[in-house]
């Protein structure tokens, strides 16, 4: 799991169904070019423009429980 | 066995139900079918009185699967039925064997095939002893010949079930279910040191979650391993043979019968002995495991072997395998619900010595 | 960083064996979240069906048993009666519950067993390769209705929730789906209520989930969600079908 981001995806569990991509309002999720060990393309999180508001719709729709969502703590 | 000292007059079905309660059975599910209806009827009031659960299930399928569920919780559980209903229970029995769940199934046999009739019968011997359900499993089967013996072996059945984590069948018949005898209920104490039930499902509190299943799909070696493990268990179960002999040591005519016919054959042997005919009885109580060594020895010594059953000849195949001398083995059966009388059996014995 | 969403403790680390986009994994997750939130993981016993969800015992992090095809309600009945303070639920598909197990589900409901039933309706037999289920829609192609389900031959799709709603012993029946975030939230709420009812000893609670089976429907996962919205929901209407929770006193 790629910890430390707002959206962490356990790529080995991902089967590239695409639900999270579809329901992400910010367009921050996309399919990988490489495959995981089970032969699936997996979801990659890319928040270059810092648009992610940790809404967690991606995790909500994930049939694999492969997504964890975090948000920055208010200081 | 310790007795309670209180004698009561009771029919076989109710005696079996009460014996189960005494043995600590606290779950019963059943479905009406003649000639075993007194078991669910008795359980319907007696089980709640004993603090247990009684359910009149929607079918025999549901009843056996309720026993499956109760057994999962570590509760001693039983169901009963008669032949057509036992056919339906085979699904659950096979799953219980595969999942290694203890439980007691009572079959008060009636005539078949199909609906047959409601008379007593021994037509389910093959189904009970050769694995009525699918898959490569074995199940201890006890066939009592009197009501006191039925009481004793309901208790044996629960012990064997817990000892080996297996379904166990009490194979009786409508005759024993309906007849009445004066009996004294024993105080139950397990004859075995039973293993702790460390496999039950009661919630994963302070332990890792458990699962119970018989599906082993990942690769063939897993199911193979599971079945070899079961086979090892069945080997141990084979030592649990119970049988009775009566005047068999010097018998020239060895009569082989079980259950109610075992009891009647005893009368026929008394008649024969009175007339100087050396007849004796071999009566298996466990019809699986089968006392093959005993009958082999006795059968080889005897001049003739007569197998008597209330069917067209089922246990006779096990006797043939054990005695290994087909020519000396005869069969006498009644497949329609009538009971063979001791006079008829004695006549058959006399025919053999001619 | 503060966690907004993490994997529920009631799910194991095992990756599930469901096909891409299958609703089973999603509903497993919702059940696990509810059990976590209600704090009952250590006293929950689940009953897996025969069908795709047969391996549920590998994915749920609490006690789970297998049951013969269609019999989970009978098994659950006995477990709950023997251990009344445990949380007992069945998880069944449409072949298991709506076909081979109709007798068991009707009578468990009729006895008012205080159990929770999660019913996955994906209109097809998944595990065996896509044959017609009792819930297969009219005209829908399956491997045993290659020209589409002909209701004159195969009957109409069975509305199990409506069927069960006539039973006095059933206190709560709701049909939900998992096709978008709003519906997933509703589905979880229904599942939570079905478990809460059991904790409150209200009686038989039943949640039917219209669930995607993209592989056997021959659709891409997103198209499967669309199929539910446009086709399944036309015939299987979402919503509370029966709720006498508030009029039922604890048993």
Average pLDDT of chain B works out at 96
Structural class of chain A: alpha+beta
Order the strands across the largest sheet of chain B as they lie in space. Answer: 3-2-4-5-7-6-13
Strand element count of chain A? 4
Strand content of chain A: 25-35%
CATH topology annotation of chain A: Alpha-Beta Plaits
Spatial strand sequence of the major β-sheet of chain A: 1-4
What this model shows, in words?
- The complex is a heterotrimer of chains A (75), B (354) and C (251).
- Chain A has 75 residues and is α+β, with helices and mostly antiparallel strands.
- Chain A has helices spanning 19-23, 57-61; strands at 7-9, 29-35, 41-45, 67-71.
- A two-stranded antiparallel ribbon of chain A has the order 1-4. In chain A, strands 2-3 form a two-stranded antiparallel sheet.
- Helices cover 41% and strands 21% of the residues of chain B.
- Chain B has helices at 12-22, 38-49, 60-72, 83-99, 125-129, 147-164, 174-178, 220-237, 259-274, 292-301, 315-323, 342-353, and strands at residues 3-11, 27-30, 53-56, 77-81, 103-109, 141-142, 167-173, 180-186, 211-212, 243-246, 253-256, 279-284, 286-288, 304-309, 329-333.
- The termini of chain B are far apart.
- The model of chain B has no long low-confidence stretch (mean pLDDT 96).
- Chain C has a single domain, classed as Rossmann fold.
- Helix content of chain C is 38%, strand content 19%.
- Chain C has a 7-stranded mixed beta sheet with strand order 3-2-4-5-9-8-10, sandwiched between helices. In chain C, strands 6-7 form a two-stranded antiparallel ribbon.
- Chains B and C meet through helix 3, helix 4 and strand 9 of B and strand 2, strand 3, helix 3 and helix 5 of C.
């Amino acid at each position: 799991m790629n910890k430390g981001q707002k959206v962490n995806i356990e790529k080995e569990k991902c089967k590239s169904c695409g639900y999270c991509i579809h329901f992400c309002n910010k367009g921050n999720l996309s399919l990988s070019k490489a495959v995981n060990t089970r032969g699936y393309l997996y979801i990659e999180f890319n928040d270059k423009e810092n648009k992610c508001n940790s809404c967690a719709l991606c995790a909500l729709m994930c049939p694999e429980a492969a997504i964890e969502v975090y948000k920055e703590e208010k200081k | 066995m310790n007795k309670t000292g209180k004698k009561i007059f009771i029919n076989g079905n109710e005696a079996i139900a009460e014996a189960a309660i005494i043995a600590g059975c606290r779950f019963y599910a059943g479905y009406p079918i003649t000639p075993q209806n007194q078991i669910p009827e008795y359980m319907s009031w007696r089980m709640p009185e004993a603090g247990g659960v009684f359910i009149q299930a929607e079918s025999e399928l549901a009843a056996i699967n309720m026993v499956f569920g109760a057994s999962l919780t570590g509760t001693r559980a039983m169901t009963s039925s008669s032949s057509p209903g036992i056919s339906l229970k085979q699904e659950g029995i096979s799953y219980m064997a595969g999942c290694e769940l203890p439980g007691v199934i009572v079959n008060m046999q009636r005539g078949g095939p199909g609906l047959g009739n409601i008379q007593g019968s021994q037509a389910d011997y093959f189904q009970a002893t050769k694995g009525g359900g699918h898959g490569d499993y074995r199940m201890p089967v006890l066939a009592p010949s009197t009501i006191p013996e039925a009481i004793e072996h309901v208790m044996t059945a629960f012990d064997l079930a817990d000892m080996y984590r297996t379904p166990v069948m009490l194979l009786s018949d409508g005759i024993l279910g309906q007849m009445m005898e004066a009996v004294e209920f024993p105080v139950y104490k397990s004859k075995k040191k039973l293993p702790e039930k460390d496999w039950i499902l009661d919630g994963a509190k302070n332990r890792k979650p458990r699962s119970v299943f018989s599906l082993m799909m990942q690769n063939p070696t897993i199911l193979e391993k599971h079945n070899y493990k079961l086979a090892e268990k069945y080997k141990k179960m084979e030592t649990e043979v119970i049988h009775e002999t009566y005047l068999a040591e010097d018998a020239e005519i060895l009569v082989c019968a079980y259950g109610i016919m075992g009891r009647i054959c005893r009368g026929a042997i008394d008649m024969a002995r009175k007339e100087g005919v050396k007849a004796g009885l071999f009566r298996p109580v466990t019809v699986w495991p089968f006392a093959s060594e005993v009958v082999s020895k006795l059968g080889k010594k005897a001049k003739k072997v007569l197998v008597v059953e209330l069917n067209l000849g089922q246990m006779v195949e096990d006797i043939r395998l054990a005695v290994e001398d087909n020519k000396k083995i005869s069969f006498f059966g009644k497949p329609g619900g009538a009971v063979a009388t001791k006079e008829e059996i004695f006549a058959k014995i006399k025919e053999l010595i001619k | 960083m503060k966690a907004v969403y993490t994997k529920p403790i009631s799910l194991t680390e095992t990756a599930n064996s469901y096909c891409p986009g299958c609703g089973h994994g999603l509903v497993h997750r919702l059940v696990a979240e509810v059990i976590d939130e209600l704090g009952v993981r250590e006293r929950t016993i689940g009953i897996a069906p025969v069908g795709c969800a047969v391996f549920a015992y590998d994915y749920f992090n609490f006690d789970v048993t297998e049951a013969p095809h269609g019999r989970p309600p009978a098994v659950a009945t006995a477990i709950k009666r023997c251990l009344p303070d445990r949380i007992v639920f069945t998880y069944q598909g449409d072949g298991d519950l709506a076909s081979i197990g109709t007798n068991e589900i009707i009578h468990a409901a009729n006895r008012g067993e205080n159990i929770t039933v999660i019913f996955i309706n994906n209109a097809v037999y998944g595990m065996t390769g896509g044959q017609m289920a009792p819930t297969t829609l009219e005209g829908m192609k399956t491997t045993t209705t290659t020209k589409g389900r002909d209701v004159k031959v195969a009957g109409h799709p069975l509305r199990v929730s409506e069927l069960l709603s006539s039973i006095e012993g059933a206190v709560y029946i709701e049909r939900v789906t998992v096709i978008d975030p709003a519906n997933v939230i509703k589905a979880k709420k229904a599942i939570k209520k079905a478990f809460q009812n059991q904790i409150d000893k209200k009686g038989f609670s039943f949640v039917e989930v219209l669930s995607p089976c993209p592989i056997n429907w021959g659709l891409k996962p997103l198209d499967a969600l669309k199929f539910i919205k446009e086709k399944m929901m036309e015939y299987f209407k979402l919503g509370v079908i029966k709720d006498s929770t508030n009029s039922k006193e604890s048993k």
